[in-house]
Automatic annotation (TrEMBL):
<dbReference type="Pfam" id="PF01740">
    <property type="entry name" value="STAS"/>
</dbReference>
<keyword id="KW-1133">Transmembrane helix</keyword>
<feature type="transmembrane region" description="Helical">
    <location>
        <begin position="163"/>
        <end position="183"/>
    </location>
</feature>
<feature type="transmembrane region" description="Helical">
    <location>
        <begin position="244"/>
        <end position="264"/>
    </location>
</feature>
<feature type="transmembrane region" description="Helical">
    <location>
        <begin position="381"/>
        <end position="410"/>
    </location>
</feature>
<feature type="transmembrane region" description="Helical">
    <location>
        <begin position="34"/>
        <end position="57"/>
    </location>
</feature>
<dbReference type="InterPro" id="IPR001902">
    <property type="entry name" value="SLC26A/SulP_fam"/>
</dbReference>
<feature type="domain" description="STAS">
    <location>
        <begin position="434"/>
        <end position="558"/>
    </location>
</feature>
<dbReference type="GO" id="GO:0016020">
    <property type="term" value="C:membrane"/>
</dbReference>
<feature type="transmembrane region" description="Helical">
    <location>
        <begin position="7"/>
        <end position="28"/>
    </location>
</feature>
<protein>
    <submittedName>
        <fullName>Sulfate transporter</fullName>
    </submittedName>
</protein>
<keyword id="KW-0812">Transmembrane</keyword>
<feature type="transmembrane region" description="Helical">
    <location>
        <begin position="90"/>
        <end position="113"/>
    </location>
</feature>
<dbReference type="InterPro" id="IPR011547">
    <property type="entry name" value="SLC26A/SulP_dom"/>
</dbReference>
<dbReference type="InterPro" id="IPR002645">
    <property type="entry name" value="STAS_dom"/>
</dbReference>
<dbReference type="Pfam" id="PF00916">
    <property type="entry name" value="Sulfate_transp"/>
</dbReference>
<feature type="transmembrane region" description="Helical">
    <location>
        <begin position="203"/>
        <end position="224"/>
    </location>
</feature>
């Protein structure tokens, strides 16, 4: 219910999302443990899309979630969409995207979402979620914003309206936060090893708060906002509004990627723990079908919930039958118990959301950890986090992906480049500057370049080599035993070589041959050798470079006297 309100629709829509998609995922999903339904980040992205679309909350003679199919078909296309119509259309669009990626086996696209990117995005989204809950937490009114600096404007409104805080709401919020935080931080940890099932403290707080609110008449006497009416029964099927689909393409694609990435990461985590395999493309199909089906029943896009999945796994759930049992309980709530939540204070739902956000805020530690390991990884986290906070969640994700891809280019433009030395009496070659036992062989330079060789870094490759082995004759005109007469290029780290990279290799070989220095290649991959053969690489040099399986083979070959250099 809390995430339904967060998604800019009603509390009952959150219940529907936790019911209908599970039925489809039960049939098609490959994970035995994830719990499909609502998730904070997805709800936040939905609210951003809803307010950015200019949709209205409702309209007179609005077609509700219980409208008949015929009524929904007769509605006028030129009417402005409601919040519910936007999120159900998004659910269908998200489902279509996921089905498309699943059919064409594009599950690997999520590799662009690195751990640092997801962590920074989640932490930034958590800031938006927490800020959005301030209005219910303090009982104040703040404006609705979308786009860049939305979070800043919301925080400004919060501070400006603190003078209008509802004292009763703050007291209820403080008590609920204290109970939830203390239980989850202190009591739950101590009982974890003694109880097979976790105590549903969130449900207990909701029941107690609803009961007290009903008998104490919180809404009338203290002006505390409550959930109010939740309709009983299941919603009638209503088709989404396809006329607004084109305007939601961008938002739906971002939500589809994030929802799948979150679900897949959770599925991988639990499958690894319990030693079974999942199929990413089948997961895409399962989530896609679930979203398309649920879009007809007043549902917004679903995803795996991190906390709920862990609770389901900890409770002993070993298959998706646990999800069906959860649906059965929800069905009872929807058919009979829903009206009992009329007096539930909205601030209680906000408290539940805030406490649930703790793991996402703790991901800020990932930045400190990444900074000590890789500055580029830390930069990905920071750029994604700041972009999400300042620009909005959808733009933050886009900026994070673009910057992450940019760092890939940086890593290839400025790769590690070293000269290797040999460990005595072995065939092991390591960085001569880093390992004292590795000694360079007289007359030989072994060049190690940790990157692909292509148009972006070809000049760096050539300059780095020629800086240490210059072509000028006055530098080479020294004692014979000290002269460099062989260069071995370690190609084992070349993930690929393009035409520009191949031309650079040719230039290097030819220029060194002119001053009497032979160039050997070692560890060339099969794909690299294929490129060399198709480009007639050997035919284009006057003296063929020798190609060896390993560096050691190239070193040993160079010591054989009077053997001409040939391709091998």
């Amino acid at each position: 219910m809390a995430y339904g309100v967060l998604a800019a629709v009603k509390a009952e829509n959150g219940l529907y999302v936790s019911f209908f998609p599970v039925l489809i995922y039960f049939l098609l999903g490959t994970s035995r443990h994830i719990s499909v339904g609502t998730f904070a980040v997805i709800s936040l992205m939905l609210s951003s899309a809803v307010y950015g679309s200019g949709a209205i909350v409702s309209r007179e003679q609005n077609f509700t979630s219980h409208s008949s199919l015929n009524e929904s078909i007769e509605r006028e296309i030129d009417l402005p969409p409601t919040h519910l119509e936007v999120v159900t259309t998004l659910a269908m669009a998200v489902g279509f995207w996921q089905l498309f990626m699943g059919i064409f086996h594009l599950g690997s696209l999520t590799v662009v979402l690195s751990d640092q990117l997801v962590s920074g995005f989640s932490s930034g989204a958590a800031c938006h979620v927490a800020t959005s809950q301030m209005k219910d937490l303090f009982g104040i009114h703040i404006g609705r914003y979308s786009g860049s600096l939305k979070l800043i404007y919301m925080l400004r409104d919060v501070f400006q309206n603190l003078i209008n805080t509802n004292t009763a709401t703050v007291i209820v919020s403080a008590i609920a936060l204290f109970i939830l935080a203390v239980f989850k931080e202190q009591i739950d940890g101590r009982l974890k090893g003694r109880l097979k099932m976790p105590i549903p403290i969130d449900l207990i707080v909701v029941v107690i708060a609803t009961t007290v609110s009903y008998f104490a008449n919180f809404h009338s006497l203290y002006k505390i906002s409550v959930i109010e009416n939740i309709p009983t029964g299941l919603p009638s099927p209503v088709p989404p509004r396809l006329d607004i689909l084109p305007s939601l393409i961008g938002d739906s694609f971002a939500i589809a990627i994030v929802a799948f990435a979150i679900s897949l990461s959770m599925a991988k985590l639990l499958s690894k723990k319990h030693k079974y395999s999942i199929r990413p493309n089948q997961e895409l199909l399962a989530l896609g079908c679930a979203n398309v089906f649920a879009s007809f029943f007043s549902c917004y896009p679903c995803s795996a919930s991190l906390s709920r999945s862990l609770v389901q796994e900890r409770s002993g759930g070993k298959t998706q039958v646990a999800g069906i049992i959860s649906c059965s309980i929800l069905l009872i709530v929807l058919l009979a118990l829903a009206p009992m939540f009329y007096s539930l204070p909205k601030c209680i739902l906000s408290c539940i959301i805030l406490v649930a956000l703790k793991p996402m805020f703790l991901q800020m530690k990932d930045f400190v950890k990444a900074w000590g390991i890789s500055k580029l990884d830390a930069a990905i986290w920071l750029v994604t986090f700041l972009s999400t906070v300042l620009l909005d969640v959808t733009y933050g994700l886009l900026v994070g992906v673009i910057f992450s891809l940019f760092t890939v280019i940086i890593r290839t433009v400025i790769p590690s480049k070293t000269f290797l030395g040999r460990i005595p009496e072995t065939d092991i070659y390591l960085d001569a500057r880093r390992y004292d036992m590795a000694h360079e062989i007289k007359g030989i330079k072994i060049f190690h370049f940790e990157s692909a060789l292509y148009f972006i870094n070809k000049e760096l490759f050539k300059c780095s080599l020629m800086k240490h082995v210059p072509l000028k004759n006055d530098c080479l005109d020294i004692k014979e035993e000290e002269r460099i007469h062989r260069i071995i290029i370690d190609c084992s780290t070349f993930t690929f070589v393009d035409i520009s990279g191949l031309e650079t290799l040719l230039e290097i070989i030819q220029e060194y041959q002119e001053v009497g220095v032979a160039v050997f290649l070692s560890g060339c991959s099969i794909s690299m050798q294929a490129v060399m053969e198709h480009a007639k690489f050997y035919e284009r040099v006057s003296q063929h470079p020798s190609v060896f399986p390993t560096i050691h083979d190239a070193v040993e070959f160079q010591y054989l006297p009077h053997i001409s250099i040939s391709s091998s």
